[in-house]
Amino acid sequence: MALKKVVSRQLQLITxxxxxxxxxxxxxxxTYIIDAHIEEVETKIILQKEDISDVIEAAIKRDKEKPFTxxxxxxxxxxxxxxxxxxxxxxxxxxxxxNEDDQPLTAVSLDQEPELNFSDSGLxxxxxxxxxxxxxxxxxxxxxxxQSFFISLGRNETGHSYGVKLRFGVATSELRGLFSDxxxxxxxxxxxxxxxxxxxxxxxxxxxxxxxxxxxxxxxELEKGNLSIYEENSISKTMPKSLQLxxxxxxxRMAGERTExxxxxxxxxxxxxxxxxxxxMLNPDKQAVLMSPKVxxxxxxxxxxxxxxxLADRLxxxxxxxxxxxxxxxxxxxVENVMLIKQIGEQPRQILASVQYIEDKSGPxxxxxxxRDFDSFRQFQSQLDYSDKLAALGRITSGVAHEVKNPLNAxxxxxxxxxxxxxxxxxxxxxxxxxxxxxIKRLDRVVQTFLNFTRPLKVNLVPIDLNDLVHQVxxxxxxxxxxxxxxxxxxxxxxxxxxxxxADLLKQAFLNIIINGCQSMPRGGPLTIRTKRISSxxxxxxxxxxxxxxxxxxxxxxxxxxxxxxxxNGIGLAHAFRTIQLHNGRVEFDSDTDIGTTFKxxxxxx
Length: 606
What we know:
CATH architecture of the largest domain: 2-Layer Sandwich
Structural class: alpha+beta
CATH class of the largest domain: Alpha Beta
CATH topology of the largest domain: Beta-Lactamase
Distance between the termini: 78 Å
Radius of gyration: 51 Å
Protein backbone atom coordinates (compact mmCIF):
# COMPACT_ATOMS: atom_id res chain seq x y z
CA MET A 1 0.00 0.00 0.00
CA ALA A 2 2.83 2.41 0.85
CA LEU A 3 4.51 1.56 -2.46
CA LYS A 4 1.34 2.37 -4.38
CA LYS A 5 1.09 5.73 -2.61
CA VAL A 6 4.67 6.54 -3.59
CA VAL A 7 4.00 5.55 -7.21
CA SER A 8 0.80 7.64 -7.21
CA ARG A 9 2.74 10.67 -6.00
CA GLN A 10 5.37 10.08 -8.66
CA LEU A 11 2.68 9.92 -11.36
CA GLN A 12 1.22 13.18 -10.13
CA LEU A 13 4.64 14.84 -10.14
CA ILE A 14 5.47 13.56 -13.62
CA THR A 15 2.10 14.71 -14.98
CA UNK A 16 2.52 18.11 -13.35
CA UNK A 17 6.04 18.42 -14.77
CA UNK A 18 4.90 17.47 -18.28
CA UNK A 19 1.92 19.83 -18.03
CA UNK A 20 4.20 22.66 -16.91
CA UNK A 21 6.74 22.08 -19.68
CA UNK A 22 4.01 21.66 -22.33
CA UNK A 23 2.19 24.76 -21.09
CA UNK A 24 5.32 26.89 -21.21
CA UNK A 25 6.14 25.54 -24.68
CA UNK A 26 2.63 26.35 -25.93
CA UNK A 27 2.79 29.87 -24.48
CA UNK A 28 6.20 30.54 -26.00
CA UNK A 29 5.02 29.23 -29.37
CA UNK A 30 1.91 31.42 -29.27
CA THR A 31 3.89 34.53 -28.33
CA TYR A 32 6.27 34.02 -31.28
CA ILE A 33 3.31 33.53 -33.64
CA ILE A 34 1.59 36.68 -32.35
CA ASP A 35 4.76 38.73 -32.65
CA ALA A 36 5.21 37.52 -36.23
CA HIS A 37 1.59 38.45 -37.11
CA ILE A 38 2.01 41.92 -35.62
CA GLU A 39 5.18 42.42 -37.69
CA GLU A 40 3.33 41.26 -40.80
CA VAL A 41 0.37 43.60 -40.16
CA GLU A 42 2.71 46.52 -39.57
CA THR A 43 4.58 45.81 -42.85
CA LYS A 44 1.35 45.65 -44.86
CA ILE A 45 0.09 48.92 -43.34
CA ILE A 46 3.35 50.65 -44.27
CA LEU A 47 3.00 49.47 -47.89
CA GLN A 48 -0.57 50.78 -48.07
CA LYS A 49 0.54 54.03 -46.50
CA GLU A 50 3.05 54.48 -49.34
CA ASP A 51 0.32 53.88 -51.95
CA ILE A 52 -2.05 56.34 -50.28
CA SER A 53 0.75 58.93 -50.09
CA ASP A 54 1.35 58.65 -53.81
CA VAL A 55 -2.37 59.13 -54.57
CA ILE A 56 -2.54 62.25 -52.33
CA GLU A 57 0.49 63.84 -53.99
CA ALA A 58 -0.91 63.08 -57.46
CA ALA A 59 -4.29 64.65 -56.61
CA ILE A 60 -2.67 67.83 -55.28
CA LYS A 61 -0.49 68.19 -58.42
CA ARG A 62 -3.56 67.93 -60.70
CA ASP A 63 -5.30 70.88 -59.02
CA LYS A 64 -2.75 73.19 -57.46
CA GLU A 65 -5.17 76.09 -57.22
CA LYS A 66 -7.37 74.49 -54.54
CA PRO A 67 -6.40 74.07 -50.92
CA PHE A 68 -5.00 70.57 -50.33
CA THR A 69 -7.56 69.94 -47.58
CA UNK A 70 -10.42 70.43 -50.05
CA UNK A 71 -8.71 68.20 -52.60
CA UNK A 72 -8.21 65.39 -50.03
CA UNK A 73 -11.80 65.67 -48.82
CA UNK A 74 -13.35 65.47 -52.32
CA UNK A 75 -10.96 63.55 -54.59
CA UNK A 76 -12.69 60.35 -55.80
CA UNK A 77 -9.39 58.63 -56.69
CA UNK A 78 -8.16 59.07 -53.12
CA UNK A 79 -11.44 57.70 -51.76
CA UNK A 80 -11.12 54.69 -54.02
CA UNK A 81 -7.50 54.17 -52.92
CA UNK A 82 -8.51 54.27 -49.24
CA UNK A 83 -11.25 51.73 -49.84
CA UNK A 84 -8.85 49.50 -51.75
CA UNK A 85 -6.34 49.63 -48.91
CA UNK A 86 -9.08 48.81 -46.39
CA UNK A 87 -10.06 45.78 -48.45
CA UNK A 88 -6.45 44.60 -48.61
CA UNK A 89 -6.01 44.84 -44.83
CA UNK A 90 -8.49 42.44 -43.12
CA UNK A 91 -7.32 43.45 -39.64
CA UNK A 92 -7.88 47.21 -40.27
CA UNK A 93 -11.21 48.55 -39.05
CA UNK A 94 -10.92 52.06 -40.52
CA UNK A 95 -8.54 54.41 -42.38
CA UNK A 96 -8.74 58.15 -41.77
CA UNK A 97 -6.89 61.23 -43.09
CA UNK A 98 -6.75 64.23 -40.73
CA ASN A 99 -5.26 67.71 -40.83
CA GLU A 100 -2.61 68.77 -38.41
CA ASP A 101 -5.26 69.70 -35.85
CA ASP A 102 -6.61 66.12 -35.90
CA GLN A 103 -9.76 67.18 -37.75
CA PRO A 104 -10.98 64.41 -40.11
CA LEU A 105 -10.77 65.23 -43.83
CA THR A 106 -11.88 61.87 -45.25
CA ALA A 107 -12.24 58.32 -43.98
CA VAL A 108 -13.33 54.81 -44.89
CA SER A 109 -14.58 52.20 -42.40
CA LEU A 110 -15.99 48.68 -42.24
CA ASP A 111 -18.92 50.11 -40.30
CA GLN A 112 -21.59 52.15 -42.08
CA GLU A 113 -21.32 54.76 -39.34
CA PRO A 114 -17.79 54.45 -37.99
CA GLU A 115 -17.05 55.40 -34.40
CA LEU A 116 -13.60 56.95 -34.65
CA ASN A 117 -11.71 56.86 -31.34
CA PHE A 118 -8.64 59.06 -31.67
CA SER A 119 -7.44 58.14 -28.19
CA ASP A 120 -6.71 54.50 -29.14
CA SER A 121 -3.22 53.32 -28.23
CA GLY A 122 -0.70 52.89 -30.98
CA LEU A 123 0.16 49.54 -32.50
CA UNK A 124 3.80 50.29 -31.70
CA UNK A 125 2.96 50.24 -27.96
CA UNK A 126 1.52 46.74 -28.31
CA UNK A 127 4.55 45.65 -30.30
CA UNK A 128 7.01 46.90 -27.67
CA UNK A 129 5.22 45.07 -24.82
CA UNK A 130 6.46 41.79 -23.33
CA UNK A 131 5.31 38.86 -25.45
CA UNK A 132 3.20 37.38 -22.65
CA UNK A 133 1.60 40.81 -22.15
CA UNK A 134 0.87 40.87 -25.89
CA UNK A 135 -0.89 37.52 -25.59
CA UNK A 136 -2.97 38.59 -22.59
CA UNK A 137 -3.82 41.93 -24.23
CA UNK A 138 -4.98 40.38 -27.49
CA UNK A 139 -7.08 37.78 -25.64
CA UNK A 140 -8.74 40.07 -23.11
CA UNK A 141 -7.50 43.62 -23.84
CA UNK A 142 -8.78 46.75 -25.68
CA UNK A 143 -10.74 46.51 -28.95
CA UNK A 144 -8.72 48.81 -31.30
CA UNK A 145 -5.11 49.89 -31.83
CA UNK A 146 -3.96 52.55 -34.31
CA GLN A 147 -0.97 53.07 -36.57
CA SER A 148 -0.41 56.75 -37.45
CA PHE A 149 1.82 58.40 -40.07
CA PHE A 150 2.57 62.01 -41.02
CA ILE A 151 2.56 62.70 -44.78
CA SER A 152 4.53 65.86 -45.62
CA LEU A 153 3.13 67.94 -48.53
CA GLY A 154 5.68 70.78 -48.60
CA ARG A 155 6.87 73.83 -46.65
CA ASN A 156 5.15 77.16 -45.98
CA GLU A 157 6.62 80.70 -46.11
CA THR A 158 8.25 80.26 -42.71
CA GLY A 159 10.00 77.09 -43.79
CA HIS A 160 7.94 74.74 -41.64
CA SER A 161 6.74 71.46 -43.11
CA TYR A 162 3.00 70.97 -43.48
CA GLY A 163 0.91 67.96 -44.41
CA VAL A 164 -1.75 65.53 -43.22
CA LYS A 165 -2.00 62.60 -40.76
CA LEU A 166 -2.90 59.12 -41.95
CA ARG A 167 -4.29 56.71 -39.27
CA PHE A 168 -5.12 53.01 -39.57
CA GLY A 169 -7.40 51.50 -36.91
CA VAL A 170 -6.41 47.87 -36.18
CA ALA A 171 -9.19 45.73 -34.59
CA THR A 172 -8.13 43.43 -31.73
CA SER A 173 -10.77 40.88 -32.68
CA GLU A 174 -9.29 40.65 -36.22
CA LEU A 175 -5.76 40.24 -34.82
CA ARG A 176 -7.06 37.48 -32.56
CA GLY A 177 -8.50 35.73 -35.55
CA LEU A 178 -5.08 35.58 -37.20
CA PHE A 179 -3.70 33.24 -34.55
CA SER A 180 -6.89 31.39 -33.56
CA ASP A 181 -5.89 28.39 -35.65
CA UNK A 182 -2.44 28.35 -34.04
CA UNK A 183 -4.07 28.63 -30.60
CA UNK A 184 -6.28 25.62 -31.30
CA UNK A 185 -3.35 23.59 -32.64
CA UNK A 186 -1.26 24.38 -29.57
CA UNK A 187 -4.08 23.44 -27.18
CA UNK A 188 -4.43 20.10 -28.98
CA UNK A 189 -0.66 19.63 -28.63
CA UNK A 190 -0.90 20.47 -24.90
CA UNK A 191 -3.69 17.95 -24.22
CA UNK A 192 -1.94 15.29 -26.31
CA UNK A 193 1.30 15.77 -24.36
CA UNK A 194 -0.45 15.33 -21.00
CA UNK A 195 -2.31 12.25 -22.22
CA UNK A 196 0.92 10.74 -23.57
CA UNK A 197 2.73 11.46 -20.30
CA UNK A 198 -0.02 9.74 -18.31
CA UNK A 199 0.13 6.66 -20.52
CA UNK A 200 3.92 6.50 -20.29
CA UNK A 201 3.88 7.13 -16.53
CA UNK A 202 1.37 4.39 -15.81
CA UNK A 203 3.25 1.96 -18.01
CA UNK A 204 6.59 2.83 -16.43
CA UNK A 205 5.11 2.59 -12.93
CA UNK A 206 3.79 -0.86 -13.71
CA UNK A 207 7.19 -2.00 -14.96
CA UNK A 208 8.82 -0.63 -11.80
CA UNK A 209 6.32 -1.75 -9.18
CA UNK A 210 5.80 -5.31 -10.38
CA UNK A 211 9.31 -6.50 -9.45
CA UNK A 212 9.18 -4.39 -6.28
CA UNK A 213 5.87 -6.02 -5.30
CA UNK A 214 7.41 -9.41 -5.95
CA UNK A 215 10.43 -8.52 -3.81
CA UNK A 216 8.16 -7.24 -1.03
CA UNK A 217 6.14 -10.46 -0.97
CA UNK A 218 9.26 -12.60 -0.88
CA UNK A 219 10.63 -10.52 2.03
CA UNK A 220 7.32 -10.96 3.85
CA GLU A 221 7.72 -14.71 3.48
CA LEU A 222 11.21 -14.45 4.92
CA GLU A 223 9.88 -12.38 7.82
CA LYS A 224 7.19 -15.01 8.55
CA GLY A 225 9.88 -17.65 8.87
CA ASN A 226 9.69 -19.27 5.44
CA LEU A 227 13.42 -18.76 5.17
CA SER A 228 14.47 -21.59 2.89
CA ILE A 229 11.36 -21.77 0.68
CA TYR A 230 11.38 -19.82 -2.55
CA GLU A 231 8.57 -20.58 -4.99
CA GLU A 232 9.00 -19.36 -8.53
CA ASN A 233 5.75 -17.94 -9.88
CA SER A 234 4.50 -15.37 -12.35
CA ILE A 235 5.19 -12.56 -9.91
CA SER A 236 8.70 -13.60 -8.94
CA LYS A 237 9.60 -14.01 -12.62
CA THR A 238 9.39 -10.23 -12.96
CA MET A 239 12.53 -9.93 -10.79
CA PRO A 240 16.01 -10.22 -12.28
CA LYS A 241 17.54 -13.67 -12.03
CA SER A 242 20.44 -12.36 -9.96
CA LEU A 243 18.00 -10.95 -7.38
CA GLN A 244 16.07 -14.22 -7.26
CA LEU A 245 19.29 -16.12 -6.58
CA UNK A 246 20.35 -13.70 -3.84
CA UNK A 247 16.96 -14.07 -2.13
CA UNK A 248 17.36 -17.84 -2.16
CA UNK A 249 20.83 -17.58 -0.62
CA UNK A 250 19.61 -15.04 1.94
CA UNK A 251 16.74 -17.31 2.98
CA UNK A 252 19.05 -20.28 3.44
CA ARG A 253 21.54 -18.24 5.44
CA MET A 254 18.91 -16.61 7.64
CA ALA A 255 17.48 -20.04 8.47
CA GLY A 256 20.78 -21.00 10.10
CA GLU A 257 21.24 -17.63 11.79
CA ARG A 258 17.70 -17.63 13.17
CA THR A 259 18.31 -21.03 14.76
CA GLU A 260 21.39 -19.64 16.50
CA UNK A 261 19.49 -16.56 17.61
CA UNK A 262 16.72 -18.71 19.04
CA UNK A 263 19.31 -20.60 21.08
CA UNK A 264 20.78 -17.33 22.34
CA UNK A 265 17.34 -16.00 23.18
CA UNK A 266 16.55 -19.21 25.08
CA UNK A 267 19.72 -18.85 27.15
CA UNK A 268 18.89 -15.25 27.96
CA UNK A 269 15.35 -16.23 28.97
CA UNK A 270 16.76 -18.86 31.33
CA UNK A 271 19.01 -16.28 32.95
CA UNK A 272 16.14 -13.85 33.44
CA UNK A 273 14.04 -16.68 34.82
CA UNK A 274 16.54 -17.18 37.66
CA UNK A 275 16.04 -13.65 38.96
CA UNK A 276 13.55 -13.48 41.80
CA UNK A 277 12.00 -10.33 40.42
CA UNK A 278 9.81 -10.69 37.34
CA UNK A 279 11.37 -8.68 34.49
CA UNK A 280 9.74 -7.31 31.35
CA MET A 281 11.76 -5.52 28.66
CA LEU A 282 10.02 -3.13 26.24
CA ASN A 283 11.48 -1.58 23.08
CA PRO A 284 11.00 2.16 22.28
CA ASP A 285 7.62 1.33 20.69
CA LYS A 286 6.51 -0.24 24.01
CA GLN A 287 6.49 -3.72 22.54
CA ALA A 288 7.58 -6.54 24.85
CA VAL A 289 10.83 -8.12 23.63
CA LEU A 290 11.85 -10.16 26.71
CA MET A 291 9.77 -11.54 29.56
CA SER A 292 10.43 -13.52 32.73
CA PRO A 293 8.31 -16.60 33.38
CA LYS A 294 5.02 -15.97 35.23
CA VAL A 295 4.93 -12.27 34.36
CA UNK A 296 1.56 -12.86 32.69
CA UNK A 297 0.21 -14.45 35.91
CA UNK A 298 1.48 -11.58 38.01
CA UNK A 299 -0.18 -9.01 35.74
CA UNK A 300 -3.49 -10.87 35.64
CA UNK A 301 -3.33 -12.03 32.01
CA UNK A 302 -2.32 -15.66 32.51
CA UNK A 303 -1.78 -17.59 29.30
CA UNK A 304 -1.36 -14.49 27.10
CA UNK A 305 2.00 -14.14 25.39
CA UNK A 306 3.18 -10.55 25.81
CA UNK A 307 6.31 -10.81 23.64
CA UNK A 308 6.01 -9.23 20.21
CA UNK A 309 2.95 -7.10 21.00
CA UNK A 310 2.43 -3.66 22.46
CA LEU A 311 1.90 -3.89 26.19
CA ALA A 312 -1.25 -1.75 26.07
CA ASP A 313 -2.81 -4.09 23.49
CA ARG A 314 -2.32 -7.10 25.76
CA LEU A 315 -3.08 -5.56 29.16
CA UNK A 316 -5.65 -2.96 28.12
CA UNK A 317 -5.31 0.80 28.51
CA UNK A 318 -6.96 0.69 31.97
CA UNK A 319 -4.26 -1.52 33.50
CA UNK A 320 -2.35 0.44 36.21
CA UNK A 321 1.02 -0.61 34.76
CA UNK A 322 0.21 1.05 31.44
CA UNK A 323 -0.30 4.43 33.10
CA UNK A 324 3.00 4.06 34.97
CA UNK A 325 4.90 3.07 31.81
CA UNK A 326 3.41 6.01 29.86
CA UNK A 327 4.42 8.42 32.62
CA UNK A 328 8.01 7.15 32.63
CA UNK A 329 8.16 7.21 28.82
CA UNK A 330 7.01 10.83 28.71
CA UNK A 331 9.17 12.13 31.56
CA UNK A 332 12.24 9.92 30.83
CA UNK A 333 12.51 9.59 34.63
CA UNK A 334 12.66 6.15 36.23
CA VAL A 335 10.46 5.25 39.20
CA GLU A 336 10.96 2.59 41.85
CA ASN A 337 8.73 0.54 44.10
CA VAL A 338 5.39 1.92 43.03
CA MET A 339 2.42 0.06 44.47
CA LEU A 340 -0.05 -1.08 41.81
CA ILE A 341 -3.42 -2.65 42.59
CA LYS A 342 -4.94 -4.90 39.95
CA GLN A 343 -8.37 -6.49 40.40
CA ILE A 344 -8.09 -10.20 39.47
CA GLY A 345 -11.47 -11.86 39.81
CA GLU A 346 -12.89 -10.87 43.16
CA GLN A 347 -9.51 -10.40 44.82
CA PRO A 348 -7.30 -7.32 44.35
CA ARG A 349 -3.62 -8.06 43.75
CA GLN A 350 -0.92 -5.71 45.00
CA ILE A 351 2.19 -5.44 42.81
CA LEU A 352 5.42 -3.56 43.45
CA ALA A 353 6.72 -2.15 40.18
CA SER A 354 9.98 -0.41 39.29
CA VAL A 355 10.24 1.07 35.81
CA GLN A 356 13.66 2.02 34.42
CA TYR A 357 13.94 4.29 31.35
CA ILE A 358 16.98 3.12 29.35
CA GLU A 359 18.75 5.34 26.82
CA ASP A 360 22.21 6.09 25.46
CA LYS A 361 23.82 8.72 23.25
CA SER A 362 22.02 7.43 20.17
CA GLY A 363 18.59 7.74 21.78
CA PRO A 364 16.08 5.61 23.73
CA UNK A 365 16.73 1.87 23.97
CA UNK A 366 13.62 0.83 25.84
CA UNK A 367 12.03 0.37 29.26
CA UNK A 368 12.90 -2.27 31.87
CA UNK A 369 10.09 -3.23 34.23
CA UNK A 370 10.72 -5.21 37.41
CA UNK A 371 7.68 -6.63 39.24
CA ARG A 372 7.13 -8.33 42.57
CA ASP A 373 4.00 -9.69 44.17
CA PHE A 374 3.49 -7.68 47.33
CA ASP A 375 2.19 -10.63 49.36
CA SER A 376 5.36 -12.59 48.58
CA PHE A 377 7.41 -9.55 49.38
CA ARG A 378 5.66 -9.12 52.71
CA GLN A 379 6.35 -12.76 53.63
CA PHE A 380 10.00 -12.40 52.60
CA GLN A 381 10.41 -9.25 54.75
CA SER A 382 8.09 -10.13 57.62
CA GLN A 383 10.54 -8.80 60.25
CA LEU A 384 10.40 -5.24 58.82
CA ASP A 385 7.58 -2.75 58.87
CA TYR A 386 6.07 -1.57 55.60
CA SER A 387 8.26 1.50 55.10
CA ASP A 388 11.46 -0.41 55.85
CA LYS A 389 10.44 -3.07 53.34
CA LEU A 390 10.14 -0.52 50.56
CA ALA A 391 13.46 1.09 51.48
CA ALA A 392 15.33 -2.23 51.66
CA LEU A 393 13.83 -3.48 48.44
CA GLY A 394 14.75 -0.28 46.63
CA ARG A 395 18.34 -0.36 47.80
CA ILE A 396 18.77 -3.96 46.73
CA THR A 397 16.94 -3.95 43.39
CA SER A 398 18.00 -0.59 41.97
CA GLY A 399 21.57 -1.78 41.68
CA VAL A 400 20.49 -5.03 40.08
CA ALA A 401 18.45 -3.17 37.46
CA HIS A 402 21.52 -1.09 36.60
CA GLU A 403 23.79 -4.13 36.31
CA VAL A 404 21.25 -6.03 34.24
CA LYS A 405 20.65 -2.99 32.04
CA ASN A 406 24.27 -2.65 30.87
CA PRO A 407 24.60 -6.12 29.26
CA LEU A 408 21.03 -5.93 28.05
CA ASN A 409 21.78 -2.61 26.34
CA ALA A 410 24.79 -4.10 24.59
CA UNK A 411 22.81 -7.19 23.58
CA UNK A 412 19.92 -5.17 22.19
CA UNK A 413 22.29 -2.97 20.17
CA UNK A 414 24.24 -5.90 18.73
CA UNK A 415 21.08 -7.85 18.00
CA UNK A 416 19.97 -4.87 15.87
CA UNK A 417 23.39 -4.78 14.16
CA UNK A 418 23.13 -8.53 13.60
CA UNK A 419 19.66 -8.13 12.11
CA UNK A 420 20.96 -5.47 9.72
CA UNK A 421 23.94 -7.62 8.72
CA UNK A 422 21.69 -10.59 8.01
CA UNK A 423 20.10 -8.51 5.28
CA UNK A 424 23.50 -8.11 3.63
CA UNK A 425 25.04 -10.94 1.62
CA UNK A 426 28.37 -12.28 2.87
CA UNK A 427 28.29 -10.06 5.99
CA UNK A 428 30.57 -11.14 8.85
CA UNK A 429 28.39 -11.68 11.95
CA UNK A 430 31.04 -13.36 14.10
CA UNK A 431 31.86 -10.17 16.15
CA UNK A 432 28.20 -9.72 17.11
CA UNK A 433 27.80 -13.39 18.12
CA UNK A 434 30.98 -13.18 20.23
CA UNK A 435 29.73 -10.03 21.98
CA UNK A 436 26.31 -11.58 22.63
CA UNK A 437 27.95 -14.69 24.12
CA UNK A 438 30.22 -12.53 26.30
CA UNK A 439 27.34 -10.38 27.56
CA ILE A 440 25.24 -13.47 28.36
CA LYS A 441 28.08 -14.81 30.50
CA ARG A 442 28.45 -11.42 32.16
CA LEU A 443 24.74 -11.29 32.89
CA ASP A 444 24.89 -14.83 34.31
CA ARG A 445 27.64 -13.75 36.74
CA VAL A 446 25.53 -10.79 37.86
CA VAL A 447 22.54 -13.05 38.44
CA GLN A 448 24.54 -15.63 40.36
CA THR A 449 25.99 -12.91 42.60
CA PHE A 450 22.53 -11.53 43.19
CA LEU A 451 21.16 -15.01 43.98
CA ASN A 452 23.91 -15.59 46.51
CA PHE A 453 23.23 -12.21 48.03
CA THR A 454 19.45 -12.65 48.30
CA ARG A 455 19.47 -16.32 49.36
CA PRO A 456 17.69 -16.60 52.74
CA LEU A 457 20.14 -16.75 55.64
CA LYS A 458 19.77 -18.61 58.88
CA VAL A 459 20.35 -15.96 61.53
CA ASN A 460 21.48 -17.37 64.89
CA LEU A 461 20.46 -14.70 67.37
CA VAL A 462 22.25 -14.91 70.72
CA PRO A 463 23.11 -12.22 73.32
CA ILE A 464 26.35 -10.47 72.34
CA ASP A 465 28.54 -7.86 74.05
CA LEU A 466 28.78 -5.11 71.42
CA ASN A 467 32.03 -3.64 72.86
CA ASP A 468 33.74 -7.02 72.79
CA LEU A 469 32.58 -7.67 69.22
CA VAL A 470 33.85 -4.26 68.09
CA HIS A 471 37.23 -4.91 69.72
CA GLN A 472 37.54 -8.19 67.80
CA VAL A 473 36.73 -6.44 64.53
CA UNK A 474 39.34 -3.68 65.05
CA UNK A 475 42.03 -6.37 65.47
CA UNK A 476 40.90 -7.93 62.18
CA UNK A 477 41.07 -4.53 60.43
CA UNK A 478 44.51 -3.63 61.82
CA UNK A 479 46.40 -4.90 58.76
CA UNK A 480 44.25 -2.94 56.32
CA UNK A 481 44.58 0.14 58.52
CA UNK A 482 48.36 -0.10 58.59
CA UNK A 483 48.48 -0.46 54.81
CA UNK A 484 46.54 2.80 54.45
CA UNK A 485 48.46 4.57 57.31
CA UNK A 486 45.30 4.78 59.36
CA UNK A 487 45.21 4.89 63.17
CA UNK A 488 42.14 3.17 64.63
CA UNK A 489 40.96 4.92 67.82
CA UNK A 490 38.50 3.08 70.08
CA UNK A 491 36.16 5.13 72.28
CA UNK A 492 33.95 2.38 73.66
CA UNK A 493 31.17 2.93 76.15
CA UNK A 494 31.93 1.92 79.72
CA UNK A 495 28.40 0.57 79.91
CA UNK A 496 27.66 -3.03 79.06
CA UNK A 497 25.88 -2.99 75.67
CA UNK A 498 24.16 -6.28 74.91
CA UNK A 499 22.34 -7.01 71.70
CA UNK A 500 20.72 -10.08 70.18
CA UNK A 501 22.64 -10.94 67.04
CA UNK A 502 24.57 -13.34 64.87
CA ALA A 503 28.21 -12.70 65.78
CA ASP A 504 29.64 -13.80 62.44
CA LEU A 505 27.20 -11.73 60.36
CA LEU A 506 27.63 -8.60 62.50
CA LYS A 507 31.41 -9.02 62.58
CA GLN A 508 31.49 -9.07 58.74
CA ALA A 509 29.14 -6.08 58.50
CA PHE A 510 31.23 -4.00 60.94
CA LEU A 511 34.44 -5.03 59.19
CA ASN A 512 33.09 -3.91 55.78
CA ILE A 513 32.25 -0.44 57.14
CA ILE A 514 35.60 -0.05 58.95
CA ILE A 515 37.63 -1.14 55.90
CA ASN A 516 35.58 1.22 53.76
CA GLY A 517 36.55 4.05 56.13
CA CYS A 518 40.25 3.13 55.95
CA GLN A 519 40.20 3.09 52.16
CA SER A 520 38.50 6.50 52.03
CA MET A 521 41.65 8.16 53.45
CA PRO A 522 44.41 7.72 50.83
CA ARG A 523 46.82 9.89 52.89
CA GLY A 524 46.01 8.14 56.15
CA GLY A 525 44.62 9.64 59.36
CA PRO A 526 42.57 8.71 62.40
CA LEU A 527 39.53 6.40 62.22
CA THR A 528 37.42 6.77 65.37
CA ILE A 529 35.11 3.97 66.55
CA ARG A 530 32.63 4.78 69.29
CA THR A 531 29.88 2.87 71.08
CA LYS A 532 27.12 4.28 73.31
CA ARG A 533 23.55 3.79 74.36
CA ILE A 534 20.81 5.99 72.87
CA SER A 535 17.35 5.26 74.22
CA SER A 536 16.78 1.51 73.77
CA UNK A 537 19.45 1.11 71.09
CA UNK A 538 23.12 0.25 71.22
CA UNK A 539 24.83 2.53 68.73
CA UNK A 540 28.14 1.99 66.93
CA UNK A 541 29.65 4.92 65.02
CA UNK A 542 32.65 4.80 62.64
CA UNK A 543 34.14 8.23 61.73
CA UNK A 544 36.83 8.84 59.10
CA UNK A 545 38.49 12.00 57.80
CA UNK A 546 38.34 11.13 54.13
CA UNK A 547 37.06 13.03 51.13
CA UNK A 548 33.42 12.59 52.09
CA UNK A 549 30.56 11.21 49.99
CA UNK A 550 29.36 13.50 47.16
CA UNK A 551 25.76 14.61 47.50
CA UNK A 552 24.71 13.10 44.14
CA UNK A 553 25.74 9.53 45.07
CA UNK A 554 24.56 9.33 48.68
CA UNK A 555 21.34 7.57 47.71
CA UNK A 556 23.32 4.87 45.91
CA UNK A 557 26.02 3.75 48.33
CA UNK A 558 23.96 0.85 49.73
CA UNK A 559 22.94 -0.36 46.28
CA UNK A 560 24.20 -3.76 45.30
CA UNK A 561 27.05 -3.48 42.73
CA UNK A 562 27.44 0.28 43.20
CA UNK A 563 31.03 1.33 43.88
CA UNK A 564 33.29 4.33 43.27
CA UNK A 565 36.52 2.35 43.73
CA UNK A 566 38.46 1.18 40.65
CA UNK A 567 38.70 -2.39 42.01
CA UNK A 568 35.52 -2.40 44.10
CA ASN A 569 32.67 -4.86 43.63
CA GLY A 570 29.83 -2.88 45.24
CA ILE A 571 28.90 -5.67 47.68
CA GLY A 572 30.46 -4.65 51.03
CA LEU A 573 28.12 -1.83 52.11
CA ALA A 574 25.11 -3.59 50.57
CA HIS A 575 25.95 -6.69 52.65
CA ALA A 576 26.33 -4.58 55.79
CA PHE A 577 23.01 -2.86 55.15
CA ARG A 578 21.25 -6.22 54.63
CA THR A 579 22.76 -7.69 57.79
CA ILE A 580 21.66 -4.77 59.96
CA GLN A 581 18.15 -4.99 58.46
CA LEU A 582 18.00 -8.69 59.39
CA HIS A 583 18.79 -7.65 62.98
CA ASN A 584 15.94 -5.09 62.95
CA GLY A 585 18.49 -2.30 63.08
CA ARG A 586 19.21 0.88 61.14
CA VAL A 587 22.21 2.16 59.20
CA GLU A 588 22.64 5.91 58.82
CA PHE A 589 25.49 8.17 57.79
CA ASP A 590 26.48 11.81 57.83
CA SER A 591 29.08 13.13 55.42
CA ASP A 592 30.75 16.46 54.66
CA THR A 593 32.92 16.95 51.58
CA ASP A 594 36.66 17.17 52.43
CA ILE A 595 35.86 16.69 56.14
CA GLY A 596 34.82 13.07 56.46
CA THR A 597 32.01 10.60 56.96
CA THR A 598 30.39 9.00 60.02
CA PHE A 599 28.42 5.74 59.74
CA LYS A 600 26.02 5.07 62.60
CA UNK A 601 24.64 1.56 63.25
CA UNK A 602 21.74 1.24 65.70
CA UNK A 603 20.78 -2.20 67.07
CA UNK A 604 17.98 -2.95 69.54
CA UNK A 605 19.48 -3.50 72.98
CA UNK A 606 18.39 -6.54 75.00
